[in-house]
Amino acid sequence: MNDIMIGFVLLLLLVAAQASINGNTIKRSDFPDGFLFGVSTSAYQIEGAYLEDGKSVNNWDAFSLSPSNIEDGGNGFVADDHYHRYLEDIETIQSLGVDAYRFSISWARVLPRGRFGEVNPNGILFYNKILDDLLLRGITPFVTIYRHDFPQELQDRYGSWLSPLMQEDYVHFAETCFKNFGDRVKHWITINEPNLFTQMAYKNGKYPPARCSPPFGNCSAGNSDIEPLVVVHNMLLAHGKAMKIYRRDYQQKQGGIVGVVVDCLMYEPLTENDLDQEAANRGLAFYIGWVLDPLIFGDYPSEMRQYLGNQLPRFSSSESNFMKDSIDFIGVNHYTTTYAKDCIHSTCSLTGNRAINGFLDTTRERDGIPIGEPTGIEVMRVVPRGMREMIEYLKKSYDNKPMFVTENGYSEPLAENENQNVLQDNKRVEYHKMYLSSLAQAISDGADVRGYFVWTLMDDFEWVHGYLPTFGLYYVDRETLNRIPKLSARWYQDFLNPQYIREYIS
What we know:
Distance between the termini: 40 Å
Low-confidence stretches: 6-23
Strand order of the largest sheet: 1-2-3-4-5-7-14-15
Strand content: 5-15%
Radius of gyration: 22 Å
Structural class: alpha/beta
Shape: globular
Mean pLDDT: 94
C-alpha cells in the first residue's frame, strides 16, 4: 500500500511539474538556479528633464517638436519625470523583488555635444547615483549604452548613422561609459535593436531622421533600399570598435560582459509550401542574421549577399576579424510572431517585391484567422509559441550563445484601455504567464537563457505612439505622474516571491 501511495504521489508530482511548464501555473522554480528576473526601461522614454543640468537637445526632442510626428502629439520633455523621481522608482523596483534592472544612458545627457564637447559631470552624477542605489539594494544593473537617442548636433553636422563619423562618436560615448561606470556595471548592451531602429528611421521613415522612399513611404529625402544597409553597417562597426577597446583595456579589470540587443520578430511560413518556409527562413536571416551573423561569424548571411549583391556593404578582412565573436551574449527583445509569404515566385505587395525585405510579405492572418489576439500595437499579436521558436532558432543558429530575454511585454488594445479599469490588467498577466511558460520549455530543451526582463516598469513614452500604448506594470497618471500598481505588478511580485500567495483568475 505504501509503495502504491508513493508511486501515486510521484506521478502527481510529475504531472504537476509538466503542467507548471505547459500551463498557467508557471513558477519561478521552473527556471534554473541563478536565472535573473528583472524589468526594463529606457532613458528617453521615462527620464524627462530634457534640457536640465547640461543635457542637450537630442534627435527625439527635435523630432517631437512637430506634434504630427507622434500619434498623440506627445514628447519626452517630461515623460515620467524619472530624472527627479529615480529614488522612488528604484524603491518600486526593489519592492517587486527583481534581481536586475535594465536601463539606458542618455547620450545627450552625458556628452551633450558628442566628441565635439566636454563630458557633462551632472549626467555622470545622475547615473552614478542610480548605479550606487541599485547595488546598495542588491539589484544587478544591465546598462544599454545606445537606445535610439543621440545629440541632435551629430545629425546636423554629418547625418549621424549614415556617416562613418558616427562610429567615432559612438566609440567615444561607449568608452566614456566604460571609464565612469564600468567598475559597477557587469552587463553592458552596446546598441539596442539596430534592426528595428533602422527599419523605422531609414526604411519606413517613422523615427527620426524620418528618411525613406516609395513604396515604403513618402519622405522628403532618403533611399529605403540602400540607407538601412549603410546605417546597420555603421552601427555594427561602431559596436565592434567599442568592444575591441573594452576587451583590450577594461574587461579584465572590470569583469563585465557585453552583448547587443536584437528585435527578435519570429517568422512562420504562411502555408506548408516549401517556398513560404524558405521565405520565413529569409525573413529571419534578413532581420536577425543581419545583425547577429557579423557579430558572431564576421560577415552578413549568405542569403543577404545572394539577393542584395553589391548593395550590401562589405567588411574588410581586419574588420571581419574584430567583428567576429564580438559579443558575449545575445539580448532578445521578443514580443510577437508573423507569417511570411514568398514573393520570389508569387505576386506580392510593392514592398514585398523588394530585395531589402528579402522578397517576402508578412501578414498576421491565415485563411482569415488571426495569428493571435491583438494588442495596443497593430503589428504585435499574442503568439506565445513564438518565444520558444525564437529561442530555438537562436540556439541552433549561434551555437547556443548565452541569451537574456531583455524585453517581453504587452499593451492592451487602445479601445480596451479606454473602456476598462486599466489597473485590472488580466490580459497582461496572462501574456507574461504564457510567454514565460514557452520560455521555460525552450530552456528545458537545452537553450542557454539566463534572464528575463519585463517591458516595462511603468507606462511611458512609446516613441511614435506617444503615451497611447501602456506596457507598464505600473500605471502613470499623466497629470500627477503618480505611479500606481496594476494587477500585473502584484502578480510579478508574487511570482518572484512565492512565499506570498495570491490567486489571479482571468
